[in-house]
Predict the structure.
Amino acid sequence: MKTYRTHLMVCAGTGCVSCGSLQVRERLETELKNRGLSEEVKVVATGCNGFCAEGPIMVVYPEGIFYKKLTQEDIPFLVEEHLLKGRPVEKFLYTGPMVKEKVPLLKDIPFFEHQVLRALRNRGLIDAESIDEYIARDGYAALSKVLSSMKPEEVIQEVKISGLRGRGGAGFPTGQKWEEGRRYDSFPKFVICNGDEGDPGAFMDRSVLEADPHSVLEGMTICGYAIDAHQGYIYVRAEYPLAIHRLNIAIEKARNYGLLGKDILGSGFDFDIGIYPGAGAFVCGESTALMYSLEGKRGMPRIKPPRSTEAGLWSQPTVLNNVETLANVPPILLNGGPWFASLGTEGSKGTKVFALTGTVANVGLIEVPMGTSLRKIIYDIGGGIPDKHEFKAIQIGGPSGACLPTPLLDIEVDFDSLDEAGAMMGSGGLVVMNDSTCMVDTARFFTDFSVDESCGKCVPCRVGMKVMLNILERIIAGHGTMEDIDLLERLGRHIKSTSHCGLGKSAPNPVLSTIRYFRHEYEAHIQEKKCPALVCTDLIKFQVDPEKCKMCGLCKKACPMEAVTWEKKTPAVINVEKCVRCRSCIQVCKFRAIE
Amino acid sequence: MAKLTIDDLKRIKEEVRSTTALREGGFRAKVNIHMGTCGIAAGARKLMSVVLKEIEERKIKDVMVTTSGCAGLCSREPMATIEILGKPPVKYCDLDGEKMKEIFVHHVLNGDIVEAYALARGSETTY
């Protein structure tokens, strides 16, 4: 194998690719060739590095220097300075959001410093399309240990000891699921990987599949051995073309090495995996609906029991696990259950991957031990709220989740504490919201999503959610009454208790949690006919308060309709006749003078 | 490609690991080749290829190779600085491929400074 003195790890996750990382990579290759460095310096395309806000990203090893926001034009200078002359280029280094100081090394950047990588253990460190590099980082070592020295029952026992719970949302104990899958004597059995990630703002599963597809294949094969299944399916959204592409490459390479197929590693165990791209229905992330979809039927949940472990895909025993759950399996078998359980809280062991988005400085993909506080996630890892705004709420768990306010920032995030707060882990989307977000409007957004995505099978979800949406729209338009709040709460409770599947049971959560924690905003919309965050346009007067106006003229510049009259040293005036209520003026006004 | 056995898996791991180890830190020694314009003109490239070849052939995992600019003594190029972790770095000058190989074997691998080619021990004080 050829030795290089330097490896350039260029992020080729979807985020960085859309910012032009492929062009950066291409330019690097040509520039290295021109400089005669191709024999000394290797360029590697990795999966998502995590720090998507700063993309395209490149990390230079052995030094571990982190470069951000590179463009094609930067490359010739960078190659000459750093790779030829050995001088890291300061202007491409990371600068902290609060303390303006250059941080050259990846390991010193707070965003990375506080993370513990288990499911994402190989992110940014291997070429996602190279099976050899996965093997070099202990890849398939767990599978070889399992096949050569462990009985299926021992595998299940180890997973039970680890305390691993399903990372897809509900948190069902993985070891218990496998045990049930093993118990039924009906063959063939199936293993399914659920990669139908549908929550708005969530991209954990996609990133794992893009960065480290073999970890999922290995986890599935181990599961197959544990429950005595010989066929697995990966159900992945068709909207994730890069993930599907890398999975296809990974499956082909694993088959060539005999790590999938007949007689794996000479053990006599057969297992193979197929990919099934989903058509993008949110409900197909629900396990029973997913199985119907795989069978070629319309994706709709069915009544349980029987559980899928007894009668799942084609009515055969089936174990369905989430992408992240499966990526956690190989290190558990390699290092033992107690190793995994050494991190986390009483009821939730290990780590959790979150997609951190919204109005936070460091948007990206993070992995932290269970029990890490939201405050640490938002301020230490996320870098706080930028642009002098205040934190208002954090939305956790997507359309099934809840908005949690400042007083709850210190709760330790795990399955149980979130449940108590009226939220849920969901698959792990975290959307940070600042003071310019209206909570009633946010509730409407998620309710609208649930109405669109409801499969229509049961009445509470199909009709109830639509009624909730109508009420919210009424409140936002300024026609709400105080009884509406009670009605929303009552309806929400009914939908939760009578819906058919998990999605319907949790669909009212965004509304219920915003009423629970931000009731005053609902009351302001109804009683004062005001939207405190100035989002709901029907409740904004579009008048300038002359006392607050500092006469800066920014609103006049921003107005696309020329509806603002302003001259130096006079407060601005908005002509309501011309105004189209686009809120451009509100967004630029630093003094909140427009009401 | 024939099917892998468990031993094949271990072999691939060892082989590839030796080339990817530099992403994981944990270095024992650092070889710094001075690659300013003067260094390159005097043949620093040759030193680099000798060092990389040695590392490759001997499957060494704990030596880091870097470049830096002109060391300030252009007349004595090509130059290299060898640093065994925890010990002061040593600068070598007037090198060529053969000398570099000798230094690599004696100093980097065995820890014995090759005094014949050495210029100085320690680095300049920087403030």
Q: What stands out?
A: The first strand of chain A starts at residue 6 and ends at 11. The longest helix of chain A spans residues 459-476. Chain A has 23 helices and 17 strands. The interface with chain B takes residues 1-7, 9, 36, 39-40, 61-64, 83-87, 125-126, 132-133, 135-138, 140-141, 144, 148, 256-259, 263, 265-266 of chain A (CB under 8 Å).
